[in-house]
Amino acid sequence: MKRFSDQIKVVRNQMDKFLELTASIEISFKKSEKHTEEIKTKKVETNELRKYLVKYGLPKELNELAVKQREVTNKEMKLQEIKEIKENL
After folding, report:
1. pTM for the full predicted model
2. How far is CA 7 from CA 12, 16, 17, 76, in A?
3. Would you list the domain boundaries of the chain?
């Protein structure tokens, strides 16, 4: 009987760890979704500023904006990779 109760404890511990891991993954996924929305907002703002800068011909600011746009795009790509990995889990 003792072995059986020990096995039950082991299974319960494994189940608790599994539930903690699942909760952690859900929290991480929600954070990544929020981050995605922030990136979309920044991208729209950047595009609006770019149009304004092109209209008034401000090359230095336009170049800085292009650098920021590339950074946002790189972050988007990394975030997409993370989402794909999570979906495959």
Report:
1. 0.41
2. 9, 14, 15, 45
3. 2-88
